Amino acid sequence: MRVVSKIRGDKRLERQAGIPAQLPLGLRVAETPLQKFFEARQQLLDTLPIAAALVAVSKSGKTFVECSNPIFKRYETPISTFDGDDAPILERNGLGARVRAFLTSGDASDEFVWNDGSPIEQRHFTVKMTRLVDTPDDKRRCMVFLLDQTAQVRTEQNLRREMLSDSLTGLPNRAGFTELLEDAAEQDGHFAVLVIDLVRFSRINECIGAIAGDELIITVARRLLKAMRSGDRLARTGGDEFGMLIRLVDGPGDALHVGRRIKEALASPFRLTDLEIRVDCSVGCALMLDEQSDVEKLVRHAQFALKRAKETGKIEIYQPTAFHLARHRFSMETELRRAIEVGQLHLAFQPLIDLSSENVSGFEALARWEHPEHGTIGPQDFIPVAEESGLIVPLGRWALTNAARTLAEWDRRAGSALPVRMSVNLSAIQIVRDDMCAAVAEALAATGIAGNRLTLELTESAIIADPERAVRVLDGLKALDTTIAMDDFGTGYSSLAYLQRLPIDILKIDRSFITGMLLDKNKIAIVRAVLSLADALGMKTTAEGIESFELSRTLAALGCATGQGYFYSDPLDTDQAYDYLVARNS
Predict the structure, then answer these.
(1) Span 329-585: which CATH code?
(2) What region holds the EAL domain (predicted)?
(3) Which residues is 364 bridged to in the sheet?
């Protein structure tokens, strides 16, 4: 008679060990070596502090769990059975397939990430597998360990969500918007990026306060969301700037259509507590084509279009030609800065002729740029760049000092003070940003030139930009005994009140009225009117663009005091100008 005993195992293991299932209750055959192996294996699994199971492959090729510890059994239960997904763990989300592939591969170990459950409610695991060899029955088995990373993954997801989201509106921030663009660039189809900037928001924020300003931003975001089509994405990319990613279904016209919807959505007033505020916006757009995947460049293009939109007041779509021109201007700014530092600039001098005596009464100093690679760059190209970048301030000081120094050098060559003046142009930017009175005083003191020999020319735009400041600056310049001339008179919008109020000595009639004047009665009438106005206000006049003898004589007969133009001379270098002065006035 065989000895029987109780075995702490399950029926599945008993069947695998060959133990009859119909023996009387509580009676089993004596433990075999295989049974002892199963018991030892279970005890080992139970002592492990992580989820562990022994998985084998049946003859039919199906994977099954032979035994597992209590921690593993907790994960065998599905998270949710909402969709009827109560399948065993090895049949969920491809886990069994990965284990089976490992057991048939011959590898000793493997590791991968596995997610269990639906995307809404999900566990995240790192799965590690180790092959078992030399088992008593020679089956293919492996140990499977589940390392639960759910808490860590959710923390990382929350941190990432915070990093990519705007705390005020809950929309994606600039970094989140960049990710949206990168995802869109990997897909097939056409997209567009819209950049929306709120006009005058900083001023509104200063008036109503930061808290009300935040409330306004939230309300604007809600309206923009309502203006979007299904599938479009909105982000807050700056303080008062929003970005929008839209799909182009019917071509670029979709971008204009969405842009108009945005403007319409913001057209009606916003009510904040007791205030009613109107907010306008500028919209710039750039198109994302199949062959374009550089999202940073795409955003720069949209920003460039936004800048143009602020100038035109329209919805602007990026145009490569305009962008290349802007990039060329930016490159020119860098080279102009270097040119000022290394001395690539020089002055040319165009004679000013007294129309009654035909003698030289002065010179206008004109900046010229000789680029070592591109040759001569005209002032019509680099002066606007200098004004936009602020380089006009050091450039203007350089021109002022060198013009005064040249006049002082001519005096030394002549042995006495010459009866000529030097005219220097002032930009509206210089009037606003620089201390022109101090700059002129320093130039006069450094060269010893009297103030009455320096004429400062400025356009009407320098006055209109800030009339009160212009009055103060011009009064300060007049205190230095300098002469003030209004350049390009007739092409701006200054009123007669400004002419009466400002200490202006000379009106320079723009060349557009002088050129072709003899064949146009209207131009003659305009020139007569300017001359009469100057005479009534006690001002002298200078005509620009004289290109013929007949024109010079007609202007002299009409009472114009001074003239300049190619009929008399092109702009000359320092030595040529001095020789021209001596020859003409001898």
Answers:
(1) 3.20.20.450
(2) 329-585
(3) 350, 423
What tokens appear for 503 in the block?
């200490």
Q: Is 9 helix (H, G, I), strand (E, B) or coil?
A: coil
CA distance 269 to 159: 37
Residues 305 and 162: their CA atoms lie apart, in Å, by: 30
SS3 label, residue 238: coil
What is the SS3 assignment for 232? coil
The Cα 33–Cα 236 span in angstroms is 70
- Walk along the chain (586 residues) in steps of 10 and give the mean pLDDT of each run: 38 47 46 75 89 87 89 82 66 89 89 86 91 72 92 87 86 90 79 90 80 88 89 90 89 85 90 81 83 76 88 83 63 84 90 94 92 80 84 92 95 93 91 91 94 90 76 92 87 63 88 89 91 91 93 94 93 94 91
**Spatial CB neighbours of 326, under 8 Å, sequence gap ≥ 6:** 304
d(CA 414, CA 408): 10
Cα distance between residue 63 and residue 149, in whole Å: 24
Residue 434: phi and psi, rounded to 5, are -110, 160
Q: List the chain domain ranges.
A: 1-37, 48-154, 165-318, 329-585
* DSSP structure string for 66-130: EEE-HHHHHHHS-S--TTS----GGGSTTHHHHHHHHHHHT-SEEEEEEEEE-SSSEEEEEEEEE
In whole angstroms, how far apart are CA 313 and each of 196, 281, 305, 326, 384? 12, 9, 11, 19, 22
Residue 407: helix, strand or coil by DSSP?
A: helix
Find residue 244's DSSP bridge partners: 194, 234
The CATH class, in words, for 165-318 is: alpha beta
pTM for the complete prediction?
0.55
Q: Can you tell me whether residue 496 is helix, strand or coil?
A: helix
288 within 8 A of 183, measured Cβ to Cβ: no
DSSP-derived secondary structure for 126-174: EEEEEEE-S-TT---EEEEEEEE-HHHHHHHHHHHHHHTB-TTT-SB-H
Cα–Cα dist 580/351, whole Å: 8
The token pair that represents 525 in the structure block: 């009438």
Degrees, nearest 5: CA angle 441-442-446:
120
CATH fold of 48-154 reads Beta-Lactamase (3.30.450)
User: How many whole angstroms separate alpha carbon 379 and alpha carbon 385?
Assistant: 10
